[in-house]
Amino acid sequence: MDTNHNKGDKSFNIPGDWNEQSKQLKEKFSTLTDYDLKFEEGKEKEMLERIGNRLRKNREEVLNIIKEINLS
């Protein structure tokens, strides 16, 4: 079992209003679903994985996309 894969996940938090950001993400990436963007406290890692799998991006790329959305 890979236990190192959870390291660093605590540092991620949703900046700003996630409902607004998720709407913007869905507009930008029409393949994303409500399920992909469902935010649950403590399950940020799973959400990032769902988004990454749907967009075929790695975790870092997903974080950068979220940051870009937050800055716009």
UniProtKB/TrEMBL annotation:
This is General stress protein CsbD. It comes from Chryseobacterium jejuense.
